[in-house]
Fold this sequence. Notes:
The radius of gyration is 23 Å and the shape is globular. The chain is α+β, with helices and mostly antiparallel strands. The strands form five sheets. Strands 1, 2, 3, 8 and 9 form a five-stranded antiparallel β-sheet that branches. It has helices spanning 19-34, 36-44, 75-87, 99-114, 121-127, 133-145, 204-218, and strands spanning 2-9, 54-56, 60-61, 64-66, 118-120, 155-163, 178-186, 192-198, 231-235, 251-254, 268-269, 272-275, 300-303, 308-309, 338-341.
Amino acid sequence: MLYRYKLKPRSPVTTSLMSDTFFGHFCWAALFEKGESFLQDFLAAYEKEKPAPVLFSSAFKAGFLPRPAMPQAGRKKMQQFVDRYFVVDPDGALKGKSEKQKQFEGMAAAKKWNKQRFISTESWSQLKNNYSESGLLKIFYEQFRQGKDKEESSFETMISASNSINRFSGTVSEEGGLFQRESSWFYHNACLDLYVEVNLEEMVPLIDWFLTDYLPLNGFGKDKSVGMGSFDIILDKSFNTNLFKVDLSNAAMTLSAGAFEGIEQYPSFYRLMTKFGKLGGTFSVSSPSGGPVLPFKKPILMLEPGAVFFTTEKLNKQPLLKNVHSDKRIRHCGVPITVPVNIMEESLNVTI
């Protein structure tokens, strides 16, 4: 079953709201609430050919989804689009401008639209049964006519300088003590969507407790002990799973960061990111094996949300990643939530 939760920020956030981080927080919450044996059984349930018990998406601006990572229209198609909708100007939106001005404005608009990484749920609903980049450009054009084509962020990023403190002397370190800290400051009334896939019904109460009680009380990510990563979270009872129902699909789009064994067997389009994971809970200050503190995981190459896999099956029957830390017990979740989509053939025939 798929659920959606609404996140309302109460403070800045210093850690990206990614699916694997939500999963890590949930594991620590389950350990504290249910005990180590429960957590071990829970992690062992992530086996190949068996649906994952619980999966999280990354958090997105409310009312938006990641844009499918499909190849953009080539130059020839882009020029045809600009000529049809800007140079010919069938709606008279650019009345009084020369042909060169119309062409320039059209190419500038198309270039801006190609950089957008998210689409509205309304646009998704229009395109999910026959998705194509040209179809998305037409939607962007309609929004342009209405003055609604600007992709507005829900936060601003701030970079601040800080000093590291020598814990023995209580003073600032003399060399190498200065470092930069990046944080996201959300606008007033900002709201985010988080999707949760639950394949074991008995996990539903624990998930709801984790999101609506534990996480708002304890915070998310780095610096939560000083008030960062604070959210109000509620279950979105208005969410209708028909949003992700498709008449006939030929592909699946991810809502989570993805990395799993055998990923190369699926034809796909994607954007890559490198994840430098860090252990949480008590493992961030003490070694899980009793030796030196080793809080950092090995770098992991992951697919950003919005990756498109050409398969009609769900990708939730994957094991957790192993060998991501010197302690062999540590795992990392790269199993994604996927939603079906029908990709039109024209999106695959890209010409320069």
